[in-house]
Every structure is written in structure tokens, then in C-alpha cells.
Design a protein that fits this description.
The chain is of the alpha/beta class. Helix content is 49%, strand content 14%. The strands form three sheets. Strands 3-2-1-4-5-7-10 form a seven-stranded parallel β-sheet, with helices on both faces. This is Epimerase domain-containing protein. It comes from Citrus sinensis.
Length: 366
């Protein structure tokens, strides 16, 4: 996307990819052994394929070597998909290919394409049945979080991804990672709003985001709205997931840009009961669930979170994880007055309950 990650962050993601590939290889070896034993006991036992032919099982993940991207790749591999990881720096390509050669991974391939070039993306997506666009931007300075110019880049790159999805003859479905921040920043007194519930039908106010300089929220908001417009014009299936603050192992080091950017306005979100988080693995599971249901029941937008920061203790624990004072999140807790806003992810919870079983129901709360 034209932004360079820090060497430390890059090293952490490469090590995570290595660990993931080794783990997935071990899982598939066990599955192969079990299938072989089953075939010996019953010659009529034919393993079922998830998606039919090979093309059905090939998907592309943009920014695949990122905090969320890797989690999605991991879920896909464990589910039996072949994954094409899209990167935009050629110097990373050989390192990744060597890593996959050493781990004997045949389910992962790497392609280089600039997200600023729609033609490059079209070629990269060709042959894939689905695309996961994770919208993972990185601040080159590693400090400011997310600038106004980065919001403009995000809008443009998302537009290019949508155009490429429409042009690539094989692509049928796209799952776009948006943000809860594209839903919660609404202008006007509570009594003037149609409902105190924030759900998949809620949209942030663009002028409010500009006035408050909430560039991350603005970038996600404009990108998602533009994506829906292009999907409708080009008649391809799109679903968007709007997650809260993405957490997980070493998230502040591995996902610093999005974390810092998301927390701009944290005190207001906390005061309004709108500061929510989601574990990166659970978020990746949600992406896979929505993708697999897009040809049946999945449609539109989905809010994803597993925890709302509702107490001073919870705010302090979150701040501690990020190495910042709790006042950055909850301000003066003694002046905190609970607000009747309510976050709801009922739509996603219902989908995951009906499609992937009860194991996911417990991992996502309303």
C-alpha cells in the first residue's frame, strides 16, 4: 500500500507465519493418516471436498502477512482452503517463498501486487473464487497511528480491490474488513437519534469524523460505502465485517497503526459504552463463517466484538496491555455517567450459531 512496516513488526509476522505453516502441516498430516486408515477399513470411503474442484478452494488474502491477515490465513488453511497471500513488496516475496519451501507448504502461494494498481490486482485475483481484503495499513513512522492522507489511500486501494474483484472472471465473493468506528460516530443528541442501538444498520457521520479528525473512522467509513456502491454497480457479492479494537498476542506491537488510530476518541467511546474489542482469532473465524455462508444466508454488514469495556478495571487492564495510562481510555472515572447506547452483534451471532455450530456462539457475545 506504499507504507513500510517496521523491521520488528515484519520479523514478528514472518515468525508467526512460520509457526502457523508448521502447525497446519502437522494437522494435515494427521488428517491424511486418518483418511488413509479409514480407506483401508472401508474401500468405499471417499473423502469429501469442501468446495468441489480446486478453484472453489482457492482464495486470496490481501495484506496476508499482517496481524489479522495471518489469522485469516490460518483459519482458511485449517479449513482446507488453498490460500494466495498478496504482498506489495518484492523483497518480502523470496523470503516467504523460501519459508514455505522449508515448511513444505503446498497450500500457500505468494503473489506481489500493488494495491494502488487495479490491473495488478486483477491478475493477482484471477483463479481465486474469493477475496478477503483486510485493509491493513501501516504508518511509516509508527507513531501517528493513521493520518488524513492514509485515509485517502485506504479509500483508493479499497476501490481498486473492488474493481479487480469485478474484473477477475473467477472471483465470486469478497469479504471486506471495515471497522466498528464506521458505525458509532453519530452526530446529534441521543434523543434525536432514531435508536440507541448501534448495529449493522448504523453508519458514522462523515462530517463529524472530519470535525474530530477521526481519520481512521473516516477512512473505513468512506472505503466501505464506496465498496458497496461498486459491488452494486458491478453485480458481485460483497459482505463487510466491522470489528471493534482487534486484540490478541502482542497486538500493540504487531498491529500498532490500527490500535493507535482506533483509540483516538477512546474516552468518548468509553463514556458512551461503545469501546469494544475482539480477539483476532475470533475475528478471523467470523470472516470465514461469513464467507462460507455468502452463497446461502450471509449478506450485508456484520458487527463483530466479544467484549465491551464497561468498567474502570477493564479499562485499566486494556491500558496495561498497551503500556499506556488508563486515563487515555477512561479519563476521570469518577465523572463517568453510563450512557444508554447499546452495541449489538446479534446478526453475526445468529449466523455463526446456525452455520458453524455452538462452538462459535460462545466466542461472540451480544
Amino acid at each position: 500500500m506504499g507504507f513500510v512496516r517496521s523491521d520488528e513488526s515484519k520479523k514478528m509476522e514472518i515468525e508467526e507465519l512460520k509457526r502457523m505453516l508448521v502447525a497446519c502441516a502437522a494437522v494435515h498430516r494427521r488428517k491424511d493418516e486418518e483418511e488413509f486408515k479409514g480407506a483401508r477399513n472401508n474401500i468405499n470411503n471417499v473423502p469429501k471436498e469442501i468446495g468441489g474442484d480446486g478453484e472453489e478452494k482457492l482464495v486470496c488474502v490481501t495484506s496476508g502477512v499482517s496481524f489479522l491477515g495471518l489469522a485469516i490465513v490460518n483459519c482458511l488453511l485449517l479449513r482446507g482452503y488453498a490460500v494466495r497471500i498478496l504482498i506489495d513488496h518484492r523483497e518480502d516475496r523470496e523470503e516467504l517463498r523460501e519459508l514455505m519451501r522449508r515448511t513444505c507448504s503446498n497450500s500457500v502461494s505468494v503473489v506481489t501486487a500493488k494495491l494502488t494498481e487495479a490491473d495488478d490486482l486483477t491478475a493477482a485475483f484471477e483463479g481465486c473464487r474469493g477475496v478477503f481484503h483486510t485493509s491493513a495499513l501501516a504508518d511509516p513512522a509508527g507513531l501517528s497511528g493513521y493520518s488524513k492522507s492514509m485515509a485517502e489511500v485506504e479509500v483508493k486501494t479499497t476501490e481498486n480491490v473492488m474493481k479487480a474483484c469485478a474484473r477477475a472472471s473467477s472471483v465470486r465473493n469478497c469479504v471486506l474488513t471495515s471497522s466498528l468506528s464506521a458505525c458509532i460516530w453519530r452526530d446529534g443528541p441521543l434523543q434525536d437519534l432514531s435508536s440507541p442501538v448501534i448495529n449493522h444498520e448504523s453508519w458514522s457521520d462523515e462530517s463529524l469524523c472530519i470535525d474530530k479528525k477521526l481519520w481512521y473512522a473516516l477512512g473505513k467509513l468512506k472505503s466501505e460505502k464506496n465498496a458497496w456502491k461498486l459491488a452494486e454497480e458491478n453485480d458481485f457479492k460483497l459482505a463487510t465485517i466491522c470489528p471493534g479494537l482487534v486484540t490478541g498476542p502482542d497486538f500493540i506491537q504487531r498491529n500498532s497503526t490500527a490500535t493507535i488510530a482506533y483509540l483516538k476518541g477512546a474516552q468518548e467511546m468509553y463514556a458512551d459504552s461503545l469501546l469494544a474489542t475482539v480477539d483476532v482469532t475470533r475475528l478471523a473465524e467470523a470472516h470465514l463463517c461469513v464467507y462460507e455462508a455468502m452463497n446461502k444466508t450471509a449478506f450485508g454488514r456484520y458487527i463483530c466484538f466479544d467484549r465491551v469495556i464497561a468498567s474502570e478495571d477493564e479499562a485499566e487492564n486494556l491500558a496495561k496491555e498497551m503500556g499506556m495510562p488508563a486515563s487515555k481510555i477512561c479519563g476521570n472515572a469518577h465523572d463517568h455517567i453510563p450512557c444508554p447506547f447499546e452495541l449489538s452483534n446479534r446478526k453475526l451471532t445468529s449466523l455463526m450459531s446456525s452455520t458453524l455450530g455452538r462452538c462459535y456462539t460462545e466466542s461472540l457475545s451480544e
